[in-house]
Request: fold
Amino acid sequence: MDRLNINSQLEHLQSKYVGTGHADTIKHEWLVNQHRDTNAAFVGHQSMLSYFAVAENESLARVKFNLIQKMVQPCGPPPEREDQ
Reply:
């Protein structure tokens, strides 16, 4: 009974939040989600954005733009799938 409940909770969590993955998630998809979440956190926190701007000697807007650009393909193009 507990096992069924835990599995249903896990399936609900995976359907609600994309980054939690599922049984068919490949390593590349998981890494892309991690990088996008990290970059989104950096963009959302002004203090981290300021830290990066000072460290890179760039303006806040340029650092924010660069982080948002990295969200498109943070880990490069996806690998070829064998099942297609």
Observations:
- The CA atoms of residues 34 and 83 lie 24 Å apart.
- The chain has a mean pLDDT of 87.
- Residues 27-44 form the longest helix (18 residues).
